[in-house]
Amino acid sequence: LFILSVFKFLVFQQITMAENSGDLIKINQVALFTPTLNEIKNVITPAVAKNFEEIAVDVVDCPDLTEVPFQLASKGLGGHPKLFDIGGPPFLLPSVQRNKIYDVQTILKQINYNNKAFVIGAGAGPWPQLSRNCEMMMNVVIDSDEIKNQTKLAWVGEDNQCVLQNCKESDTRLALLANLFVSEGKPGKVIKVYAKTRTGNLDFITTIQNALSARYKSQLVGMGGTFLIKQGKVKQHVMPDFSPVPLNSEKSLNDWLHFYNMSAPLVAVGTLVSAENNLDLRVQHFHSFSDHGEGGHYHIDVTPDTVEYLGYFNVADCLYRIDQPPKSVSFGKD
User: Fold this and answer.
1) Helices 37-51 and 204-215, axial angle in degrees (round to 10)
2) Do the Cβ atoms of 85 and 222 come closer than 8 Å?
3) Residue 132's closest CA among 110, 100, 157, 102?
4) Which of the listed residues 61, 107, 109, 145 has the most CB atoms within 10 Å of its CB?
5) Cα-flanking dihedrals φ and ψ of residue 215, to 5°?
6) What stretches in the chain show pLDDT beneath 50?
7) Which stretch is the leader sequence (predicted)?
8) Distance from C-alpha of 330 to C-alpha of 334, rounded to nearest angstrom
């Protein structure tokens, strides 16, 4: 029975996509299990309560995410919600594969996502735009070839400081890897997760992901959305330019990355799934940006006594695994 259940949620459709080089990229389309939002609420509430002092988990109407403090490119998270898991750490580690560049517009056309597409999430930015490696906080609306691009890019400056800048309006590319939530950006019901004062060892997203993993052992569940770090500071990293030497271990990777304690308010975007499964999925990936020049890859808050989170998430009905690397690596997914 367990094997049958696993088989049912791993059945996928293969799609191919042509790169600029003429090579074919394989896209696996995976149907996700879609619990009701009320069920998700009941699954994650005990986990959040175990890890934070003050919590509230509710099913609510999504607030207008274009307004302060979120300032996203569309109002909501509703309408044909999908997940994209693109590339992966093996295209960066141990040595970078610079040819791994993807355009979200091309992917949307290939999978026949003919609706307005609101795309948010975390990934490596389009290095050709900056002539250097960078982090990406995708935040873009693509509608009938019209683009509203509020994507941010973060990179390491000459003095080892974090530099945060706007992506070019017309550039909807990314490189190497990304985890994106795609919807029509419509208002609708979402899961609201509020948490203040961390008392446990798990970060905000790991708390939610672990709860999903424990509940849905034989089913693949995926979510995406945004959360605000309202108070406190968080540990985040920014990738410097590509390493001239191979990064063969977790230590060498961490020595290469630049870590910062970044201050609230920060707005994070990304995805989480209940399991890696045989598609080598990244179980969680969120990047944050701000109005004060800081942004990067979210790890955990470093001020547990004062940290305050507010998140809004929706459940996706389908996942597209795009250009899965032929080999996995044992590190680089944190």
Assistant:
1) 130
2) no
3) 157
4) 107
5) -85, -40
6) 1-11, 17-22
7) 1-18
8) 11
What pLDDT is stored for residue 204 in this prediction? 99
Name every residue whose Cβ is closer than 8 Å to that of residue 7 and which is 6 or more positions away in sequence.
none
Domains present along the chain, CATH in parentheses: 32-322 (3.30.1330.80)
For the segment 172-221, what is each residue's pLDDT rounded down to a tens digit?
999 999 999 999 999 999 999 999 999 999 999 999 999 999 999 999 99
Quote the pLDDT of residue 15: 56
CA distance 190 to 38: 10
> How many angstroms separate the CA atoms of 36 and 314, rounded?
10
- 3-state SS, 86-119, equals EECHHHCCCCCCCCCEEEHHHHHHHCCCCCCEEE
Report CA-CA distances (Å) from 254 to 2, 187, 332: 38, 39, 9
pLDDT of residue 187: 98
Strand ranges inside the chain, DSSP E: 12-18, 24-31, 52-61, 82-87, 101-103, 117-124, 135-143, 146-149, 152-156, 162-166, 173-183, 189-198, 222-231, 233-238, 258-263, 266-273, 284-289, 296-301, 308-315, 318-322
> For position 114, what pLDDT does the model report?
84
